[in-house]
Design goal:
Layout (H helix, E strand, L loop, with lengths): L2 H55 L4 H31 L1
Helix pairs in contact: 1-2
Length: 93
């Protein structure tokens, strides 16, 4: 038997086990997407809260704080969006 034949035989032996795990992977992808969205919401909420407290303590640096807050929120949102897209690809594929 050729090497290709051995590989194809191994793939057909493993395929039923992989097919049985597909619904579980889709549930895992959905849970991952929801965790990414919740984590981003909590992160941006904590960021905004800390920025507001800092502005209340030192109003003269409000402009710098706003810039840093918006930049950090954009990074958090970007990472969360990437995580959600990857998790939804697991669900769809």
């Amino acid at each position: 038997m050729s090497m290709l034949g051995i590989i194809l035989q191994a793939a057909t032996d493993v395929a039923p086990a992989v097919v049985d795990l597909l619904p579980l992977a889709k549930v895992g992808g959905a849970i991952g997407a929801s965790v990414a969205a919740i984590g981003a919401g909590l992160g941006i909420g904590k960021l905004a809260s800390a920025s507001m407290e800092s502005t209340a303590r030192q109003p003269e640096v409000a402009g710098d704080l706003r810039t840093n807050m918006l930049l950090s929120a954009a990074f958090i949102e970007g990472v969360a969006l990437f995580a959600i897209v990857v998790c939804l690809l697991v669900v769809v594929m």
